[in-house]
């Protein structure tokens, strides 16, 4: 068991979500940054889709009732086991009675904690993820609060993936370190593909969308990011029937200010859709705070598929690297 020692309405038990339940009208949910959660799980010997904890409100503290291998990934933050500081993307044995503390990040927005064996909350519709709007999953469908105790699954992991109890190790892919370094400019580029209604927008709107910046507004959340920038105008007023949307869909309501649907977003909507952020860039959005400016770049569909293949290649390299490091530690 581990005990939560700090309140945080947006600190949640998450895994990779409920994609299979989307046809039922259930949000995908799950981790906003699935790449960070997957890496954290690999570092402690879990399957990539094991449940962990998404931290968005800091400081966050966990007390361990048994020895367990733990990894902290996501935002570049100050993590401590007792008084020992952990570098970003680091795994470490935490002893029974010790406290893991995650301080506010220097760069990024969300941190992820994976524990060997995974967080063992009940599955709902095939996932342990918390759905706050629907009130199920995780711990009673809500954010974590002080005094919550979380069960941990059996840590039956390969010996090749399990460092000795004296050690720990870190793994931060170049693509991630480069991204967090770029956040100092307060502007990030997101790759996207044209969406269904792109031809309904004025040509000038498409130029504006790809050549100007849109700032993430404070009222943004896990459902979606509201953006502020130059208005995107349609060729003519239009009424659409609602139909499916996915995380990354960029919709434009009558205000002309874009909204990006995210993990807890609606499964259908009727606003015109100008673009879809590609799947392999959604983790970048997850780590962008309010005030960060976004620039959009259109890709051909083949290039979007290639970007996803490249991300899979990086993850496979990580798996192999972690196996080698684990054996040596």
UniProtKB/TrEMBL annotation:
Residues 23-314 form the Carboxyltransferase domain. It comes from the Bacteria. Gene3D superfamilies: Cyclophilin-like. Transmembrane segments: none annotated. GO terms for molecular function: ATP binding; hydrolase activity. Keywords: ATP-binding, Hydrolase, Nucleotide-binding. This is KipI antagonist. It comes from Pandoraea iniqua.
């Amino acid at each position: 068991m581990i005990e939560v020692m700090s309140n945080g309405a947006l600190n949640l038990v998450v895994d990779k979500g409920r994609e299979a339940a989307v046809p039922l009208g259930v949000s995908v949910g799950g981790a906003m940054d699935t790449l960070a959660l997957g890496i954290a799980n690999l570092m402690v010997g879990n399957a990539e889709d094991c449940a962990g904890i998404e931290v968005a409100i800091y400081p966050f503290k966990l007390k361990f009732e048994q020895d367990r291998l733990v990894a902290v990934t996501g935002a570049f933050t100050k993590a401590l086991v007792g008084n020992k500081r952990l570098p970003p993307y680091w795994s470490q044995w935490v002893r029974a009675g010790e406290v893991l503390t995650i301080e506010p990040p220097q760069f990024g927005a969300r941190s992820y904690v994976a524990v060997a064996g995974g967080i063992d909350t009940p599955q709902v519709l095939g996932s342990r993820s918390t759905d706050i709007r629907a009130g199920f999953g995780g711990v009673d469908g809500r954010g974590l609060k002080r005094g919550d105790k979380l069960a941990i699954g059996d840590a039956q992991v390969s010996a090749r993936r399990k460092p000795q109890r004296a050690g720990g190790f870190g793994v931060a892919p170049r693509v991630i370190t480069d991204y967090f370094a770029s956040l100092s400019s307060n502007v990030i580029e997101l790759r996207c593909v044209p969406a269904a209604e792109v031809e309904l927008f004025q040509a000038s709107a498409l130029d504006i969308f790809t050549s100007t910046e849109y700032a993430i507004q404070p009222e943004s959340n896990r459902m979606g990011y509201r953006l502020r920038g130059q208005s995107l105008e349609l060729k003519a007023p239009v009424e659409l029937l609602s139909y499916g949307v996915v995380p990354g869909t960029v919709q434009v309501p009558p205000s002309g200010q874009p909204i990006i649907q995210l993990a807890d977003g609606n499964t259908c909507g009727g606003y015109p859709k100008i673009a879809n952020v590609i799947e392999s860039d959604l983790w970048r959005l997850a780590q962008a705070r309010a005030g960060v400016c976004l620039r959009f770049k259109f890709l051909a569909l083949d290039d979007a598929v290639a970007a996803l293949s490249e991300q899979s290649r990086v993850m496979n390299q990580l798996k192999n690297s972690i196996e080698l490091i684990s054996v040596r530690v």
